[in-house]
Amino acid sequence: MSRDIENMPLYFTLQEVVQRSGLSEHTLRYYERIGLLDRVNRDSSSNHRRYTAEDVQNIEALACLRATGMSIDDMRKYFALLKDGKAAADQQLALFEAQKKALEQEMAQKQEHLRYLEHKVAFWKAVQRGDDARAQEIGKIATGLAKQIIKEK
Fold first, then answer.
1. Can you state the angle between helices 14-21 and 25-33, rounded to 10 degrees?
2. Where are the domains of the chain?
3. What is the rounded distance in angstroms from the CA atom of residue 3 to the CA atom of residue 126?
4. Is 44 exposed, middle or buried (0-12, 13-18, 19+ CB in 10 A)?
């Protein structure tokens, strides 16, 4: 996520960062408390958090990583590896390939869940139409899908 830092304000309020990142105030404070974010500077008069453009870039990256389902430990690893730059490229690649694979597996499971629901919709439409033969046929398929879904757990 590269942004032109020079065109950003000198600092952002907590509310501005919440709006930009989509992360809640609670989440931002939590990430700071557990060390995922560096300590945020505070306004000397109000003691309110004041985020720099670099802070905002890191928070936006965290929001994206979180959206992919990346664990806090892996997010921590990502930021630690960033400090090593190109020397950590292999490790960064492995981290993101593993997350990509996990997300692909999750999406495949969701596709199966969607297929099950599509069959349940078709089943009840057949019941509604009074097409008992079709309802029975679809019901058997839905039962087979249900067994697959239950096995996944």
1. 100
2. 1-67, 99-152
3. 54
4. exposed
DSSP string covering 32-96: HHTTSSPPPEE-TTT--EEB-HHHHHHHHHHHHHHHTT--HHHHHHHHHHHTTGGGGHHHHHHHH
Q: Extract the tokens encoding 31.
A: 């990430």
pTM of the model: 0.76
pLDDT of 100-144, one tens digit each?
999 999 999 999 999 999 999 999 999 999 999 999 999 999 999
CATH code of the domain made up of 1-67: 1.10.1660.10
Apex 26 CA angle, 22 and 27, nearest 5? 55
Q: Contact 4/57 with Cβ under 8 angstroms?
A: no
The structure tokens 């390939």 sit at 97
Q: Check if the beta carbon of residue 3 is closer than 8 Å to that of residue 10.
A: no
